[in-house]
């Protein structure tokens, strides 16, 4: 049975699609080379001589109105299918396409790698919609984990940790991870992942996106490692127009759609950060190995205890740990009044990867810091959490 069905007379795109599927995707492609689409599922399946596929790809060279008619019929009769539209439609038509039942939109100029990433995402979406009720009930009440990376002080490697956590989780759950840059004025997630996003958090909190998660997904940027990113706006002034309640709603939406939502936050405790923390299932506290950072973290933890908004699942990370700094882990724990869960040693490999915009976990380098980062990521693996919840604050020092 073919997982992918292409409805298009374009021989050029047919060849690109088959090349993408042949290199890294399980399944095959069946093509109906016509710009007139079947009237409905029964007619389509008769032409295919098989039961329903997982992903239907419409176009290019199929009229836009015909594609929307087809999508509306299938969205009503077979809402579990993933419909992908291949088109250079105007942004003003995007909402109409999503509401008609189109799950994703792909440019006709996309290369094989981009096609493969999008098809992986479509297959993941199909699998999610076809999970058994028992499986869905076990998934944290139907919501994904929201993992916030926080630090009272800047310059401690918070974004580096957040991007590596997202990349590592993407290897556990491909196409089920989104990283959100909530340092809305000076966020570096885009540069940390070497992305040039067309859309940002500003788009994601618009009324259209807030009311329809399909529209929201259209504003996410796909990363080649199989994760999504929602980056900070390029103009710091835009941050002034984003309110905490909008961020609260955004995170609620994303946690319904993704297994993991990773948040990179601004230093300190701004209103946006506190609103985000209230949505977190897990908080990663990051400190460098210097007295100002440690005292800042101690003060921050104390404030949050008083406000009673500290998430139960806490992970304290000592970043850029260096035995030559004159402090050891016990000194750190004594200063902050909490155990250190993971210690990440100072590493040239991590520094180089940050400057290149390629997280070190994406390249699987052999380095002590890589080992520590993987142990941090493992703390969010459902298998680890089930087996070792009682040891959630066991220290890991490399």
UniProtKB/TrEMBL annotation:
What sequence ranges are listed for the domain AAA?
146-306
InterPro entries reported for this sequence: AAA_dom, P-loop_NTPase, ParA/MinD_ATPase
Q: What domain of life?
A: Bacteria
Residues annotated as signal peptide: none
According to the record, the segments passing through the membrane are: none
Q: Pfam families annotated for this entry? A: AAA_31
The protein depicted here goes by the name AAA family ATPase
Q: Give the lineage.
A: Bacteria, Bacillati, Actinomycetota, Actinomycetes, Micrococcales
């Amino acid at each position: 049975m073919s997982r992918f069905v292409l409805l298009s007379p374009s021989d050029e795109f047919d060849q690109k699609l088959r090349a993408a599927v042949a290199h890294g995707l399980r399944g095959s492609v069946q093509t109906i080379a016509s710009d007139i689409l079947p009237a409905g599922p029964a007619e389509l399946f008769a032409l295919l001589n098989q039961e329903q596929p997982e992903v239907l790809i419409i176009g290019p060279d199929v009229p836009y109105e015909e594609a929307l008619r087809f999508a509306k019929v299938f969205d009503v009769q077979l809402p579990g299918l993933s419909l992908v539209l291949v088109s250079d439609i105007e942004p003003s038509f995007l909402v109409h396409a999503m509401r008609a039942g189109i799950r994703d939109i792909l440019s006709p100029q996309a290369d094989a790698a981009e096609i493969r990433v999008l098809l992986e995402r479509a297959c993941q979406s199909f699998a999610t919609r076809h999970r058994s009720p028992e499986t869905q009930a076990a998934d944290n009440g139907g919501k994904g984990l929201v993992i916030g990376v926080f630090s009272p002080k800047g310059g401690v490697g918070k974004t580096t940790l957040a991007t590596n956590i997202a990349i590592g989780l993407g290897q556990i759950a491909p196409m089920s991870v989104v990283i959100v840059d909530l340092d809305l004025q000076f966020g570096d997630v885009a540069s940390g992942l070497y992305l040039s996003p067309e859309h940002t958090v500003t788009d994601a909190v618009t009324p259209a996106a807030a009311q329809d998660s399909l529209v929201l997904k259209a504003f996410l940027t796909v990363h080649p490692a199989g994760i999504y990113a929602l980056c900070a706006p390029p103009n710091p002034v835009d941050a002034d127009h984003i309110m905490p309640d909008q961020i609260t709603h955004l995170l609620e939406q994303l946690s319904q759609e993704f297994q993991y939502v990773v948040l990179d936050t601004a230093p300190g405790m701004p209103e946006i950060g506190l609103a985000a923390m209230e949505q977190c299932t897990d908080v990663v506290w990051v400190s460098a190995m210097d007295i100002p950072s440690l005292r800042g973290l101690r003060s921050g933890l104390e404030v949050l205890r008083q406000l009673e908004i500290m998430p139960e699942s806490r992970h304290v990370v000592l970043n850029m740990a260096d035995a030559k700094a004159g402090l050891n882990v016990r000194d750190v724990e004594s200063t902050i009044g909490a155990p250190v869960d993971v210690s990440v040693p100072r590493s040239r490999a991590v520094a180089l990867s940050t400057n290149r915009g390629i997280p070190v976990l994406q390249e699987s380098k052999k380095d002590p810091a890589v080992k520590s980062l993987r142990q941090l990521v493992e703390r969010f693996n459902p298998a680890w959490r089930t087996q070792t919840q009682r040891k959630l604050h066991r220290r890991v020092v490399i």
